[in-house]
Amino acid sequence: MAGAAQHCGGSLMSDVDFLNVGPFQLEVLRRANRPPGQLPLLLIHGINNINPNAPFLEALAEHGEIVAPSHPGFGHSPRAQDFDTMYDLVHLYLAVLDNLPGEKITMIGFSFGGWIAAEVAICRPHKLARLVLVDPVGIKIGGREERDFPHFFNTSPDELNRRAWHDSAKQPPGNYGLGWHTVIGEAMSDEEMVVLARNWDALCIYAWRPHMYNPQLKHWLHRIAVPTLVLWGASDRIVTPDYGRTYCGLIPGARFELIDRAGHHPELEQPVAFVAAVADFLTKADPRVASA
Amino acid sequence: MELWNHCENPYPFVPNEVLEQAPSVRASLPNKYCDPKIAARLYDEVFDEYRLCDDLGLHIVTNEHHSGINNLWAASPVITGIIARLTSRVRILSLGTLITVRPDPVRVAEEYATIDVLSRGRLEIGFVKSGATEMVSGDANPMRIREREWEAIDLIEKSLTTHDGPFSWEGKFFIHPHVNIWPRPYQQPRPEFWAATSDLPTCAELGRRGMINTLLFGGYDRTRQAFDAYKTARSEAGLPAPDEDRFSYMAFAYVGDTDEEGLQIGQKIAWFLTVSIKSAPQFSKFQPGAIAPEMAPAAWRTGASRRPRPTNLDAEVLISQGQMFAGTPDTVVKQIKEFRRRVGGIEHIIMMTRQGLVTHAEAEKSFTLAAREVLPQLQDLPPIDEDETRWLAQRSIAAAAS
Q1: The dihedral sign for the CA sequence A174, A175, A181, A183
Q2: Residue A12: what pLDDT?
Q3: What confidence tens digit (pLDDT) does each residue in A133-162 have?
Q4: Chain A contact set for B282 (CB, 8 A)
Q5: In percent, how much of chain A has pLDDT > 70?
């Protein structure tokens, strides 16, 4: 990886820089609150890149250095002309894993990023130690006339906003979930709007059709070979907890946990509970080994 | 000049309270509000109008939109094929089938070649980029549609002009390893290509390719800028200056016995803008690709979409903006000549007449007057003074900007 980003160890560091992965350049948010020693946490973001002011970042960084790239086309990451499929994203993140320093890494994928993380995990990258999926999309469960989740682009922003949050009135400022179009206002900076528009466009390129899933992924989730936590907002009405339980059941030994009073973005709506659940998972022994 | 009749076959019979409450009158309005018996009558009426146009010498334009009150032509090639057999004289322009929505341009080429043969070479093929609710109704990714449109046009052109057996196409958006359409088109090398756009880089590309550039309701200044971009691109590419037949414009139009009648019925046409384009935000300003990200702040702060929904459009205002031609034959002749002068020359005027609440009888009256009393006065016009009109246009644009 030419021009690989420098590892930022030491105490409290927060930085956004760029990482070159082959010909592709990624904006990367880093956060480290503790000396190195714990496994780095690679965050695979969902519909929006991780905000440097996200309410869970500081606390989560206590449990490992955070590395949070913006997918090509999201945030300030450029998107190369023909970089436009889930295939590209999976191989990009396999390359990111290969090139990050350290022997092992924990990967946490949110929503759309949970789909990416699941796809990466079935490839069994040697550095992947643990996997956390947070309200992921990516598989098709219902019948041909049943939607597992609303169409992100064809559904009214009001409806998305209503479904995405346990309490949509309590969204953390500057952090945007599904239905963010409804909170556009004077408080939003021009730069934020440009980034949101870029994110929405890029998401559409990757996931318009089939919408937010890979029909084949379900067949291969059994290949995931690392301890896996599937976390779900109990009030998620974008992708329901039942979908999450089925998803989890397809991953050998995976643990399913609900976060109360949270919707599709529990990391934004209940950051304390979210970090506690992840921290608990990270410190537990591999449950599959324990039960063997 | 040539006059064309364009009817979208709208369905203005849904109760107003339903339209008022619906977040969108396209894409999501339930089809229970479309009575097939009324639709059948509408098809009959409009096809009768096309027969009249054939007798009168007005060329015909078809298009398609989906899932909405504005248009019952769900498949332009189907409708165009019917017109090909109903008529025998006039030219027929499909403007067009939605090539950014349809998965296989080769099928489109095959359908158009069929129509060209059965019309004995009277077909013209128009391309539209499409977008908005059409991407939803056709489940087509709204991103990168301009790139997709050009690739589709290239594949259609190659399909129409290749006669030595199968060729292979492995493009960015379309893959077809075995292309060999039957029949081949009647016209050689192919029917004329048109495209509807006011996007200046696209107009420039049309100029380099020599395709006919039509604008839809663009008004004087925007149309002038588009045609200038076309001409400049040709000049910069070392290509000969285009004739006026490379330029076209679609306007609302009503020709009546008096100016008052023209205005009164012209006002009924404005339904197209006031009612039939109401669209939910996720199908319009928040659809991916609807605006360039760097334009988002300006668009979102003002609440503006790319196609704001006007609600109070006066026929006289539309006329003053060059978006409607209406009045007596002499008045309409004067308006069209003025338009031609201000945009620097144009050959094709597409009249949108049977629109909104305009009736069958009203439409037929306007077509008859247009063909008999307007069209003859638009023949053998003196050449445009390019220098003079360019200077006038620059002055007008500067005045609008200040």
Answers
A1: negative
A2: 40
A3: 999 999 999 999 999 999 999 999 999 999
A4: 153-157, 181
A5: 92
pLDDT at A130 over 50: yes
> In degrees rounded to 5, what are phi and psi of residue B179?
-105, 125
Q: How far apart are the first and last CA of chain A?
A: 38
Hey, which residues does A240 pair with through a beta bridge?
none
Nearest CA to B6 among B214, B309, B260, B207? B214
Using pLDDT thresholds of 50, 70 and 90, give the confidence band for residue B311: low
Report all structural domains of chain A as residue ranges with CATH numbers, in order of start. 13-284 (3.40.50.1820)
Local confidence band at B305 (pLDDT 50, 70, 90 cut-offs) = very low
Q: Which residues is A258 bridged to in the sheet?
A: A232
Distance (Å, rounded) from C-alpha B122 to C-alpha A21? Answer: 55
Contact B130, B100 (CB under 8 A): yes
| Chain A residue numbers touching B301 (CB-CB < 8 A) | 186
Is B142's Cβ below 8 Å from some Cβ in A?
yes
pLDDT given for residue A35 in this prediction: 63
Residues of chain A with Cβ-Cβ distance to B288 below 8 Å are: 153, 200-201, 203-205, 208
B143–A contact, CB cutoff 8 A: yes
- The span from the CA of A33 to the CA of A51, in Å, is 17
3-state helix, strand, coil in chain B (%, to 5): 50, 15, 40
Residues B75, B64 contacting (CB under 8 angstroms): yes
The mean pLDDT value for A28-51 works out to 91
Helix then strand then coil, in percent of chain A rounded to 5, is 35, 20, 45
Q: What is the mean pLDDT of chain A?
A: 92
CATH topology of domain B2-401: TIM Barrel (3.20.20)
So what's the pLDDT on residue A88? 98
Q: What does the domain layout of chain B look like in residue ranges? A: 2-401
Judged by DSSP in three states, A225 sits in coil
With CB atoms and an 8 Å threshold, state whether A157 touches B281: yes
B42 vs B94, B144, B254, CA distance in Å? 19, 36, 19
